[in-house]
Amino acid sequence: MGDQPTFTLHIDQNKYLPLDGREVHAILTISSTGAVTTTTTAPAEAAEVIIVDTSGSMSGGKIREARQAASTAVEALRDGVHFAVLSGTDKARVVYPRGQTLVRATPATRKEAKDAIARLSANGGTSIGEWLLLADRLLSAHPDAIRHAILMTDGQNNEGPERFAGALARCSGRFVCDSLGVGSDWAPAELRKVAEALLGTFDFVRDQGDLAEFFRRITQTSMSKTVAELAMRIWVPQTARLAFVKQVSPTLIDLTGKRTDVNPLTGDYPTGSWGAEEREYHLCVEVPPGRIGSEIRAGWVKLVRPDTQEVLASGNVLAQWTDDLAQSTRINGKVAHYTGQAELHELIQEGLSARAAGAVDVATARLARARQLAAESGRADTARLLDKVVEVDPRSGTARLRPNVDKADEIELDTGSVRTSRLRQGGVGG
Amino acid sequence: MSCPVCEAPVLDGDSFCEACGHPLHAPRCAACDAPAVDAEGYCERCGVRQPTARDEAETVLDGGAAGITHKGLRRARNEDAMALLARGADTVAVVCDGVGSSPRADEASALAARTAADALAGGLGQAEAFELAGRAVAELATSPDDAPACTYVSAVVTGDRVSIAWAGDSRAYWLPGGSTPGGAAPDGPPPGGTTADGTTPGGAAGCVPLTEDHVVPTGEITAWLGADAAGVEPHLREFAADGPGLLLVCTDGLWRYLDGYAFPPGRTPLDLSRELLRHALDSGGHDNVTIVLIPLGGQHG
After folding, report:
1. Chain B neighbors of A322, CB-CB under 8 A
2. How far is A41 from chain B (nearest CA, A)?
3. Any idea which architecture B56-296 has in CATH?
4. Does residue B264 have a cis bond before it (omega within 30 degrees)?
5. Residues A300 and A358 in one domain
6. Which of B3, B42, B106 is most worth mutating to test chain A (most A CB atoms within 10 A of its CB)?
7. What is the spatial distance between Cα A157 and Cα A126, in angstroms, rounded to a whole number?
8. Entry's InterPro entries (chain A) (predicted)?
9. Of A1, A34, A36, B47, which sees the most CB atoms within 10 A?
10. What's the pTM value of the predicted model, to 2 decimals?
11. Are residue A212 and residue A190 in the same domain, yes or no?
């Protein structure tokens, strides 16, 4: 007590299952006050690595904007934060400080860092995995700090997929990385992998003039984190199976494959670092058939600090079998909403892949359905982007793909599909 | 031996599993038998919520009177309630069954049983106790559409005399001699035990109904306790035992299965109530089951 933000865990579900019901769904809402009242410990230490793509494609206006953005990020660092600036090509290099360590942010070190950033030039290839591995080496010297990297790139990753995957696996769970794609030559799929492996966000900076603002916002968010790394510890009964666990708000991140076994019935799933914020998770447990009237705890969820094993919040996901259809067919609004948001994301991803592969019928069907879901769930921005890719006749409902889609619109649709809307009171998405 | 949760090997004398820290002497689970029931009442191995005192409970008085209430197999919760008290040498029993179509019927039955039993044990008469219980249940309602309701049957046993009050379809029966220790199994129909149409009342061998349900032919009850039952009067009855026997007070969760049932002889009230419960559950356990047995007119264990 005292040196921790307060966490609350709220569970939304319909616990009633029909007699043949085997799937229990629940939405977990975890909120943190973020406020820390210090007793014995100082405010959490933070370690920040800023990674700037300096490959050849960045030359000209882009490298100027990137230098400006990196300087903005350095200015946003609060005093005392350990930091470094890396430049990334087919290799990774520490631009500031000298050597292979982080330095504490002071007015003097910030000035030196900005001077070093001003000398950055664009030349070479792109090996994102190498950049992350160097960031990991620097951050690993600060195991107790909230470790974060911010990465920007404008191009396709040139390194082999296995090297890239190996680097992501190596860094996973060791720091959080938010990434930014600039221009229309980068592949959202690559940065999506970074976001999924390192529990961060990834965004499209459509106008390179906005890059500095994106850097400042990400750095500020990172500076607002007060708890380094929390795990969601989930128990399910011996005869049950955790079908999936996903973060569903503010963005979709599938955590199912990130399990670390605690015991045969219990696993830890990483959630990254926390500030004052609210996130939602969707849990699905497959349970064995149950007797009418009997109630089970189908899931036991605890938010845990892995270093101290301290439980910050906990809750039960329940299941109870009934032959009352009025009870078992009632669908929880939040479960339905986020099931729809996940489906929208999948439809967009499948639709865009099919479109790229020339499968016109599949692409048309998926994207038209996505257009409908987006409108129904209050995703006006997504619906507007879908309108630029697929055209739906409002009277006949007939859909066709639009020719000559702006590449930037496509990237924005692709990257934006992981962002979910919240369920408003009254059940309409927003 | 292995830990019920993580399956790591543990030693006989260990208090906690060395691998996962789980306590090894936790209560055993009613469903999977693992010693893994946690403080919240869930099994940490199979997840099953353990029955609470409201789900199933037994009461035994010094004189041998016994009561059991049980959730049954098909209902999510137990909306039956019972109260069984001694008042000096007398015994007071009240059994109520929450009306399934009313809200918070479990609260209604619990409150009615407790209120009436306290009143009867305090020396009030049957009609007054009924009225107090009825008023208490009526006060649970927040509006005419939110009116918890329950049935009612009460019995006060004084020596070999019984006074009974009821509303609804919860019942009292007289089980003469044969079903008590030392008695003989009854031969043929019980004394006074045939109705006008010649059938055995209640359909069970060896028992005499003491109450008449307030029901219409389609099965709906016509009297109950609740805000929507203003002016309901209980039926009252006095009964004198002409020999040793057991007074059975029960809800429809039991009596629906008594058709053709032969009460086994030579049981204590507690053993017989357990056996009756088993019979109700074996027969389907469709409803909550509540059984109270009070010995009178002789020596009972």
Report:
1. 76
2. 28
3. 4-Layer Sandwich (3.60)
4. no
5. no
6. B42
7. 5
8. CLCR (IPR051266), VWA_3_C (IPR041176), VWF_A (IPR002035), vWFA_dom_sf (IPR036465)
9. B47
10. 0.78
11. yes
How high is the mean pLDDT of chain B? 86
pLDDT tier for residue B123 given thresholds of 50, 70 and 90? very high
Cα separation, B234 vs A266, whole angstroms? 56
Residue A352 covered by a domain: yes
Structural domain total, chain A: 3
Cis peptide bond N-terminal to B295, omega within 30 = no
SS in 3 state form for B188-243?
CCCCCCCCCCCCCHHHCECCEECCCCCECCCCCECCCEECCCCCCCCEEEEEECCC
**A-chain residue closest to B76, CA distance:** A293
- Give the pLDDT confidence score for residue B52 in this predicted structure: 81
Residue of B nearest to A299 (CA): B47
**Predicted confidence (pLDDT) at residue B190 exceeds the cutoff of 80:** no
Listed residues A223, A246, A269: the one ending a domain = A223
A35 and A56 together in one domain: no
Strand bridging mode A7-12 / A23-32: antiparallel
Q: What pLDDT does residue A424 have? A: 67
Distance from CA of B74 to the nearest CA of A (A): 5
Same domain? For A321 and A344 the reply is: no
Q: Comparing B20 with A331, which gets the higher pLDDT?
A: A331
* β-pair partners for B58: B68
Specify the pLDDT at position B187: 42
Reported as a pLDDT band with limits 50, 70 and 90, residue B203 is low
Q: Rounded to the nearest 10 degrees, how much is the dihedral formed by the CA atoms of A20, A23, A27, A30?
A: 120
Which residue range forms the structural domain that includes residue A294? Answer: 7-40+227-326
Identify all chain B residues contacting A296, using CB atoms and an 8 Å cutoff.
42, 46-49
pLDDT of residue B39: 86
Does residue A126 sit in the same domain as residue A65? yes
Considering the domain architecture, whether residues A337 and A390 belong to the same structural domain is answered as yes
> Which CATH number belongs to the domain containing residue A261 in this structure?
2.60.40.3670
For the cut 60, the answer to whether the pLDDT of residue B192 exceeds it is: no
Q: Are residues A166 and A51 in the same domain?
A: yes
Domain boundaries, chain B: 1-50, 56-296
* Listed residue (B252, B98, B87, B55) closest to B173, CA to CA: B252
Say yes or no for a CB contact (<8 Å) between B45 and A265. yes
Last residue of a domain, one of A223, A249, A267: A223
Q: Is residue A422 part of a domain?
A: no
* ipTM above threshold 0.95: no
Residues B24, B3 contacting (CB under 8 angstroms): yes
Residue of A234, A291, A292 to mutate, interface with B, max B Cβ within 10 Å: A292
